[in-house]
Specification:
Layout lengths: L7 H10 L2 H6 L60 E9 L2 H12 L2 E2 L7 E3 L7 E5 L4 E8 L3 H13 L5 E2 L2 H7 L3 E6 L5 E6 L25 E5 L3 H11 L3 E10 L2 E9 L7 E4 L6 E8 L2 H13 L8 E2 L6 E6 L5 E6 L11 E3 L5 E2 L4
Parallel strand pairs: 1-4, 5-8, 9-12, 10-17, 13-16
Antiparallel strand pairs: 1-5, 2-3, 3-4, 6-7, 7-8, 9-13, 10-11, 11-12, 14-15, 14-18, 15-16
Helix pairs in contact: 3-7
Bound molecules: fe (ii) ion.
Fe (ii) ion (FE2) binds next to strand 9 and strand 13.
Length: 364
């Protein structure tokens, strides 16, 4: 095989015909893949028969059942970042915790992790992904990023300290509450509390919801957050220089007499885990979670509309190609419920877009 590898079919064929070092030169990190292994960056497993088309790839945790189509684009192998991390969890300060919990479970299909207070929510096999703290802020309190490699985590700490950034260890109590092995926290240029951790624990029970067919997570993490910032360039520089993230692309659109410019950054195969813009409103513009089945976008959208929530139309973005809708959560910030997001792959070029949506997403 010559040239760059493309989709999953190419990968499967390569696994069967190429030695590991040849795979590595084609940008594949999981060079030792064998039939039956999960393919890094997507919810599929390698199959033995190279003639099988993409559509018959098996969702690992749903047996042979395919609820919805898996886009070939979402199964491609991503390029390596300077330092891989993933958005592991978010803590929200919410004035009406009960309403938010009900919204998440009954409309979106999230799962409550136990009956503890504050409530913690699950979307996958992790012990929790979203914590709902009692607070009048109705905004993001902290965002947790996981680095699997402890050495990398320590390197990050040294780097931050070398840049005169104050870094604080998570106490044992903090670690127990977050269900992580260890980590530290610091403030980004916009005073957002960032936590970098290792060993975010898995749950003892499988994710279960009668309203969800599961969410895309794994090494792509919880989803993405979009934050309002004071200085776009300063923020981008911090996340690139200090945290090893990379700009995926930009969207610039008119906003009144001015322009709204949004920067999207990745730190793993997900198109973006964070995005920033100088804009009015809350610190957290929205959190995005990505369903595995397109059916869940349509069905949860209908439930949100029927529940009388402020729900926009379904649409698709031009950069990450996410099919999604936005709904205003009981805390006032939005949640984007998506499906079919594109991943960072190959020789990525940072593009400029001049529209937020290819179609749809009209506000109601
Ligand atoms: Fe988004």
């Amino acid at each position: 095989m010559s040239g760059r590898l493309g989709g999953v079919r190419d990968l499967i064929e390569a696994v069967l015909s190429e030695p590991a070092d040849a795979l590595a030169t084609n940008g594949i990190r999981a060079a030792a893949l064998a039939p039956g292994d999960q393919i890094r960056g997507c919810n599929a497993v390698a199959r033995q028969n190279p003639a099988l088309p993409v559509e018959v790839l098996r969702c690992e945790d749903r047996g042979a059942e395919l609820i919805g189509p898996i886009l070939p684009d979402s199964c491609r192998v991503a390029v390596k970042n300077d330092m891989d991390s993933s958005l592991a969890y978010c803590g929200f300060g919410v004035s009406d915790v009960e309403a938010w919990t009900s919204f998440a479970v009954d409309q979106l299909g999230l799962m409550r992790a136990g009956q503890g207070d504050p409530p913690h929510l699950r979307i996958d096999d992790r012990s929790w992904r979203i914590a709902l703290h009692h607070s009048p802020k109705d905004d993001l309190l902290y965002a947790g990023f996981e680095i699997e490699d402890e050495e990398q985590l320590e390197k990050l700490r040294v780097k931050l300290l070398g840049s005169a950034i104050e870094v604080f260890d998570l106490s044992q109590t903090d670690c127990d509450q977050r269900k992580v092995q260890h980590g530290f926290h610091f403030a980004d240029p916009n005073s957002v509390r960032l936590e970098f951790v290792t060993g975010h624990a898995k749950a003892d029970t499988p994710f279960q919801s009668d309203k969800s067919r599961g969410f895309v997570t794994g090494d792509q993490g919880l989803g993405h957050i979009v934050l309002a910032v004071a200085d776009l360039e300063q923020t981008i520089s911090f996340y690139e220089q200090q945290l090893g993230m990379r700009v995926s692309d930009y969207i610039t659109v008119p906003m009144g007499d001015a322009k709204l410019r949004i920067a999207f950054l990745h730190c793993n195969p997900r198109h973006h885990s964070v995005a920033f813009a100088v804009m009015p409103g809350k610190r957290l513009n929205h959190l995005m979670i990505e369903a595995r089945a397109v059916d869940d976008v349509i069905l949860s959208h209908r439930r949100c509309v029927d529940a009388g929530l402020k729900t926009g139309e379904i649409g698709r973005h031009p950069n990450d190609l996410m099919l999604s809708y936005y709904v205003t959560t009981p805390a006032g910030f939005d949640l984007e419920f998506g499906w079919g997001g594109r991943m960072i792959e190959g020789d990525w070029t940072v593009a400029e877009y001049d529209q937020i949506s290819l179609w749809g997403h009209q506000k109601t």
